[in-house]
Amino acid sequence: MRAFIQRHLDPATRVGECLFGLIMALGITGAVRLGTNETSSHQLFVAVLGCNVAWGVVDGVMYVMLALFERSRKSRIVNCVVTAPDDAAAIEFIRAELGTRLEPLTTPEERQQLYQWVLELARRANREPPRIRREDILGGIAVGIMVLFATLPILVPFILLSNADVAVRCSNLIALGMLFWLGFWWARAVGANPYRISAGVAAVGIILVLITILLGG
Question: Is residue 159 domain-shared with residue 203, that is, in the same domain?
């Protein structure tokens, strides 16, 4: 399962899906508790699991649709470049698409050479209509699995503890610890300050918990 997820999702996507799953779980425990005094641990277990399963399905479908959208956007760029009336118009279109991204990293001469290479690549590209591919669907499945896996540790208190209030607080602590760990791992992956990023990510979770507590959750 781990190899399957690593094969179909890049590290940033994996971290992002775990973060979304944890934040969703924090939000749903607070939302279910708000205005209800008789919510049981079992009901909270069902609510959190059901919410994150639904979110995993939705996020998986969105992953597939975004992959198709990005492929369609690239196809549109290639078509516009290939059908341009001359090289100057084609390169101007490429510059409009890529110039702002390349400007901080290249000189004007280097960018002009890159635009020419992109033009040559576009003319050799296979211009088949964009469609959903097998790897898109597998990536969407991996997204759903990541969201579900992120939920499992914070469901444990609702299984072991009958007191809903204690189970919620224990679940929140587990979620906050996981948020800190994810922030640390994320920062190490991108070369940022791990403690600063971890504290910032965990702070988002703490704010959500405090808001729900202040509102009566």
Answer: yes
